[in-house]
């Protein structure tokens, strides 16, 4: 591959429209880039673009604008996931979630859709997106079930946590310039249950999927020979990041656990003062005062733990999953390159139909090129999201902790104030310098 | 005796106690809690001068002459009576001491002598079974107050004492002054321990807290209107050698009431003073309530420790992670430092809370002393009742003998009926014996009545004193606890605000 992309993925970039993506989308002079989108994409597999969907650079530009962080004025699609409901059939019980979509995008027939989806459907969508865009970074789904202990699929907290994660998942896809154009995505948002079932049955059959998998496995065994430096760098980063985020996840969960245990003890602590106050005369009020303070601090602690569980824990967990996703993406990229390399070598050594092979090799080479670009582009995007998400989660946690201590401070200061107006100390008050 | 003072703090926001007092002389309750503009200072009234200095500028912030204040407080609130004349610590018999239940103004030992337990040291020696052992000794320093206030600064007299010697002293006081709620010693073994605290008696933190507790014990005893006059106490503080012989010579061990006697009295006494019965119930409650509180507090401390320390892991991981990130690196790195600081801050906070726990523990142990006073009352009352009923029964016997009427059933009466009556000589002998016994019995009853009344009077006074002291001390302790919580919250606010700033930079 002779061509190099001008805008190399660099973590120091902070511009709103990063050169990497825009290099691919806006740079209309380079035909190769344009080609990426108008080419027959059977190589990349499947149903990425519907024929009826405009693929002109103009619409790409619009979509590209979604790169800008925290922009909601240019958003033209709003998705919410809510209202979990339990369904009981003869065979199984499962939960569905309401998926509400409001959009002004022209590829949608209506401006509003309301459908019910179950976790399996989300899994299907994710699979389709990954198949279609093997080197794009698809935001992770919440896990199938809680690993340790019982399968608590119907536990209220679990459902709520999952709901939030599913909500985030869909919105991330909606924000993604390429993924949000996916036909599968559109169908997911708009089709009624039976329509979706029918739709799911289409597409590459079981056997061709098997073929893909076999190839992938074969390639991964073979390994890639000339991985570009930048991807090695990304891989190393992902390894380290995965470790760190895993540690953070564990530490945070441990903090939640310790804080909950602290809260349990604290709940028993206040009553010991109240109990004591029953036996005292002069001290009774004071003891009750202290008991009251402790009780109020209990409430604040409960809130603080809740906030931690709702805000920081899920985000860290998401990024633990993200790290795995990234590893998979890198692997897939490697496989694509490996496949190309294998065929390339075969060209040199085997006595086969060279013309046919050459044609195949060209296609594979383009595929590699395209995969690399997609990944590079998405990589910068992902890094920015990651920074934004983690920064805001930690910020929120720090703010909540400050708030927690401020509230407890107020509780104890009020108590202290009530004590300092006691008359027995009056005689000494005058002795200030 | 404690007070709360309000001092307005100038720019510097730290305070330490100046060099006129060695830090070791600041007992258990003394704390300088800092922040912003108002400090609450707790200290023990000791007849000496406390100077507070700004830690940065070393300027004196306030000069408080405690002796003056002491006088003021005494005027304001104490139950006073005319001082009993005479020199308090010259040879007074133990019996006199016992009867000396009046509160004397300006007469306690502490007003004449500065006492402190300055240091602790390890020693090795042979114990009673000739085995090598390691034990801790405590340095008791004393100085006459006159010399200090006159401006001289004499070196203190000092001697070393072991914990067991303090125990002997206390047992002596318990036996000699049963009507006094005798201040307790710090705990013999560490209890209510949470995981970080060592249960080891040799642990330096435990030794330090014990040193403070022993000093507190001495200060309490030396400021008690009755106990402070005791000769043995004075000896304990001033004569290193031969003290043990002297105290044993008093024979106090023989005078101790047997437990069985005391227990039996509790169950069989008919008319104890109701106030004492109530006080005994209270002492039971105080003991169980403070004990429960201390147990839960220790568990809470343990958990809190865990929470803070886990945050230290954030420090480590942030630091490692910051090496990976270009943009977020700085923010993460500094946030990590704050997390480390947060984790480290809990050690000091919980150390301070241990002092609070010690204050409560003192009253846990005081409860037992209180109960002992009530029990002694029951014993004296029981002895009185026994003596009275003995007397009554003797009188009845005399009446029976004299009149020949048998009122009550007795074997004697039966055998008399069966085997014939005794001779007139025998009866005479019996009668005169009875008369003697009755006379003695009446004396005993009178003695016991007086003993009982005096005991009740003395004990009631001291129990009232104790109650007031307890209310004051515990009130201070609770305020101190609130101040500690406030300090903890403020530190938390600071750390997380700093962390927030760092996260902003990410």
UniProtKB/TrEMBL annotation, chain A:
GO terms for molecular function: phosphatidylinositol binding. InterPro entries: AH/BAR_dom_sf, PX_dom, PX_dom_sf, Vps5_C. GO terms for biological process: autophagy of mitochondrion; endocytic recycling; piecemeal microautophagy of the nucleus; protein transport; reticulophagy. GO terms for cellular component: early endosome; phagophore assembly site. Gene3D superfamilies: Arfaptin homology (AH) domain/BAR domain (1.20.1270.60), Phox-like domain (3.30.1520.10). Residues 326-374 form a coiled coil. SUPFAM superfamilies: BAR/IMD domain-like, PX domain. SMART domains: PX (SM00312). Keywords: Coiled coil, Protein transport, Transport. Residues 75-196 form the PX domain. Belongs to the sorting nexin family. This is PX domain-containing protein. It comes from Oncorhynchus tshawytscha (Chinook salmon).
TrEMBL record, chain B:
Pfam families: PX. PROSITE patterns: PX. Gene3D superfamilies: Arfaptin homology (AH) domain/BAR domain, Phox-like domain. One of its GO terms (cellular component) is plasma membrane. The keyword Cell membrane does not apply. One of its GO terms (molecular function) is phosphatidylinositol-3-phosphate binding. SMART domains: PX. Keywords: Protein transport, Transport. GO terms for biological process: positive regulation of autophagosome assembly; protein transport. Residues 116-243 form the PX domain. Belongs to the sorting nexin family. This is PX domain-containing protein. It comes from Oncorhynchus tshawytscha. The lineage of its organism: Eukaryota, Metazoa, Chordata, Craniata, Vertebrata.
């Amino acid at each position: 591959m002779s061509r190099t992309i001008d805008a190399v993925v660099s973590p120091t970039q902070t511009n709103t429209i990063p050169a990497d993506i825009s290099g691919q989308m806006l740079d209309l002079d380079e035909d190769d880039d344009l080609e990426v989108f108008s080419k027959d994409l059977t190589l990349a597999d499947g149903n990425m673009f519907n024929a009826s969907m405009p693929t002109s650079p103009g619409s790409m530009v619009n979509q590209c604008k979604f790169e800008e962080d925290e922009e909601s004025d240019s958003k033209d699609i709003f998705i919410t996931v809510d209202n979990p409901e339990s369904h009981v059939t003869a065979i199984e019980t499962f939960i569905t979630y309401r998926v509400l979509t409001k959009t002004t995008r022209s590829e949608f027939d209506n401006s509003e859709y309301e459908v019910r989806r179950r976790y399996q459907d989300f899994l299907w969508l994710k699979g389709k997106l990954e198949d279609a865009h093997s080197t794009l970074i698809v935001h992770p789904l919440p896990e199938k079930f809680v690993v340790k202990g019982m399968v608590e699929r119907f536990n209220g907290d679990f459902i709520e946590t999952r709901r939030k994660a599913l909500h985030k998942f869909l919105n991330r896809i909606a924000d993604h310039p390429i993924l949000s154009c996916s036909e599968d995505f559109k169908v997911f948002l708009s089709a009624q249950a039976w329509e979706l079932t029918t739709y799911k049955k289409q597409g590459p059959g079981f056997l061709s999927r098997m073929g893909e998998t076999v190839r992938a496995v074969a390639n991964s065994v073979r390994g890639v020979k000339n991985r570009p430096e930048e991807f090695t760098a990304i891989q190393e980063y992902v390894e380290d990041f995965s470790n760190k985020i895993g540690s953070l996840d564990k530490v945070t969960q441990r903090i939640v656990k310790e804080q909950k245990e602290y809260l349990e003890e604290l709940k028993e602590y206040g009553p010991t003062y109240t109990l004591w106050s029953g036996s005292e005369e002069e001290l009774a009020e004071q003891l009750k005062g202290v008991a009251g303070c402790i009780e109020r601090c209990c409430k604040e602690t409960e809130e603080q733990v809740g906030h931690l569980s709702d805000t920081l824990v899920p985000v860290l967990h998401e990024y633990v999953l993200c790290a795995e996703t990234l590893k998979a993406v890198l692997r897939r990229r490697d496989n694509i390159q490996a496949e190309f390399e294998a065929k390339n070598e075969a060209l040199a050594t085997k006595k086969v139909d060279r013309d046919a092979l050459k044609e195949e090799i060209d296609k594979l080479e383009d595929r590699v090129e395209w995969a690399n670009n997609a990944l590079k582009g998405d990589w910068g995007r992902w890094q920015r999201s990651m920074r934004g998400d983690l920064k805001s989660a930690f910020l929120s946690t720090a703010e909540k902790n400050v708030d927690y201590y401020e509230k407890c401070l107020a509780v104890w200061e009020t108590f202290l104030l009530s004590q300092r107006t006691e008359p027995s100390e009056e005689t000494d008050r005058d002795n200030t310098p | 005796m404690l007070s709360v003072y309000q001092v307005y703090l100038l720019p510097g926001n730290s305070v330490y106690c100046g060099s006129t007092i060695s830090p070791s002389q600041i007992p258990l309750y003394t704390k300088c809690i800092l922040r912003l503009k108002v400090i609450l200072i707790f200290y023990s009234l000791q007849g000496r001068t406390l100077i507070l200095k700004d830690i940065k500028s070393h300027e004196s912030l306030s000069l408080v002459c405690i002796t003056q204040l002491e006088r003021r407080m005494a005027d304001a609130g104490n139950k006073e009576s005319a001082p009993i004349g005479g020199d308090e610590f010259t040879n007074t018999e133990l019996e006199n001491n016992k009867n000396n239940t009046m509160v004397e103004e300006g007469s306690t030992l502490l007003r004449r002598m500065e006492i402190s337990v300055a240091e602790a040291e390890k020693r090795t020696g042979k114990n009673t079974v000739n085995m090598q052992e390691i034990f801790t000794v405590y340095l008791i320093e004393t100085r006459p107050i006159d010399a200090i206030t006159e401006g001289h600064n004499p070196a203190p007299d000092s001697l070393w004492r072991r914990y067991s010697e303090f125990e002997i002293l206390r047992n002596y006081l318990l036996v000699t002054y049963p009507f006094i709620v005798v201040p307790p010693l710090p705990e013999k073994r560490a209890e209510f321990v949470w995981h970080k605290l060592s249960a080891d008696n040799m642990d330096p933190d435990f030794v330090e807290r014990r040193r403070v507790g022993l000093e507190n014990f001495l200060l309490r005893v030396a400021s008690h209107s009755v106990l402070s006059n005791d000769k043995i106490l004075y000896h304990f503080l001033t004569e290193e050698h031969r003290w043990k012989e002297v105290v044993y010579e008093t024979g106090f061990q023989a005078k101790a009431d047997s437990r069985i006697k005391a227990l039996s009295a509790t169950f069989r006494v008919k008319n104890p003073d109701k106030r004492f019965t109530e006080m005994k119930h209270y002492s039971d409650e105080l003991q169980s309530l403070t004990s429960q509180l201390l147990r839960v507090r220790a568990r809470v401390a343990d958990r809190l420790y865990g929470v803070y320390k886990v945050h230290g892991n954030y420090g480590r991981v942030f630091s490692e992670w910051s090496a990976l990130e270009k943009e977020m690196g700085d923010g993460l790195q500094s946030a990590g430092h704050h997390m480390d600081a947060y984790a480290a801050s809990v050690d000091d906070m919980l150390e301070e809370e241990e002092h609070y726990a010690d204050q409560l523990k003192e009253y846990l142990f005081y409860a037992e002393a209180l109960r002992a006073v009530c029990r002694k009352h029951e014993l004296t009352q029981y002895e009185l009742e026994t003596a009275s009923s003995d007397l009554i029964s003797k009188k009845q016997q005399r009446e029976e003998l004299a009149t020949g009427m048998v009122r009550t059933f007795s074997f004697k009466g039966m055998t008399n009926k069966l085997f014939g009556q005794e001779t007139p000589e025998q009866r005479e002998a019996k009668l005169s014996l009875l008369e003697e016994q009755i006379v003695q019995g009446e004396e005993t009853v009178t003695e016991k009545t007086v003993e009982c009344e005096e005991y009740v009077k003395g004990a009631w006074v001291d129990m009232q004193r104790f109650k007031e002291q307890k209310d004051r001390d515990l009130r201070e302790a609770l305020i101190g606890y609130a101040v500690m919580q406030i300090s903890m919250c403020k530190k938390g606010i600071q750390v997380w605000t700093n962390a927030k700033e760092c996260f902003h930079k990410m």
